[in-house]
């Protein structure tokens, strides 16, 4: 009969590996590899109740950097790595919002020329860019703030107006709730979009783009 002497250091190494595996299972992939946060990308019923369409033919062009925009702002030193897929939700929500806000809406998939706008009888072109995305995470709250810049152009691609809009969502214990940060992100995007649509509608109603009044 043969006996094999156990090496203490090898046993310790094996125990460390086992414990590490157990810890991995307990904490999950999220805290090690980070969170991939995707918003639902749809507007709430409250939005449709707040926004009513006005009579206006208008076009929207969204640059590629908006549609693919992501943020890795984790919101705090102790927070897990986070990737917010902002553009993939913001794009569809903007299309839905413009359809709700204007009775004649045209989406331009490629950057239009003045000739194209005139050919289709489009007097106004709107383009939007993301200026900043801020994420703040504490033990008790989670706040997201999105700031965009909107530019309105005429059919000759001459700027008629430029403004910034900010949408914020601030929720308590959002990571513990059903839907979590995804829902909070969606709310911040919707609040930003609501500010954009209301400003555009107000400017059109007051004749700002025709130079009849000042914004």
Which strand order spans the largest sheet, edge to edge or round the barrel?
5-2-6-7-8
CATH class term: Alpha Beta
| Helicity, as a percent range | 25-40%
Judged by helices, strands and strand pairing, the structural class is alpha/beta
Largest sheet: 5 strands, mixed
| Poorly predicted residue ranges | 1-9, 11-32, 172-176
Tell me the CATH superfamily: ABC-type transport auxiliary lipoprotein component
**β content, as a range?**
25-35%
**Proper CATH architecture:** 3-Layer(aba) Sandwich
**Alpha carbon gyration radius:** 25 Å
List the total number of helices: 6
Mean pLDDT: 81
Shape: elongated
Overall domain count: 1
What series of H and E elements makes up the topology?
Answer: HEHEHEEHEHEEEH
Q: Alpha-carbon distance between the termini?
A: 95 Å
CATH T-level fold name: Rossmann fold
């Amino acid at each position: 009969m043969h006996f094999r002497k156990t090496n203490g250091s090898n046993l310790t190494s094996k125990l460390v590996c086992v414990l590490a595996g157990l810890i991995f299972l307990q904490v999950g992939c999220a805290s090690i590899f980070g969170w991939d946060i995707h918003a639902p990308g749809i507007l709430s019923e409250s939005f449709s109740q707040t926004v009513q369409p006005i009579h206006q033919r208008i076009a929207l062009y969204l640059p590629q950097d908006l549609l693919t925009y992501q943020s890795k702002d984790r919101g705090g030193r102790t927070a897990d790595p986070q990737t917010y897929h902002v553009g993939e939700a913001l794009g569809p929500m903007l299309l839905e919002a413009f359809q709700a806000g204007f009775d004649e809406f045209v989406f331009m998939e490629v950057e239009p020329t003045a000739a194209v706008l005139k050919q289709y009888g489009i007097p106004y072109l709107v383009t939007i860019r993301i200026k900043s995305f801020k994420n703040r995470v504490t033990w008790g709250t989670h706040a997201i703030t999105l700031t965009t810049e909107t530019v309105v152009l005429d059919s000759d691609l001459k700027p008629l107006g430029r403004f910034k809009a900010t949408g914020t969502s601030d929720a308590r214990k959002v990571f513990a709730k059903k839907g979590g940060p995804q829902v909070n992100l969606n709310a911040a995007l919707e609040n930003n979009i609501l500010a954009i649509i209301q400003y555009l509608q107000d400017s059109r109603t007051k004749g700002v783009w025709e130079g009849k009044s000042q914004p």
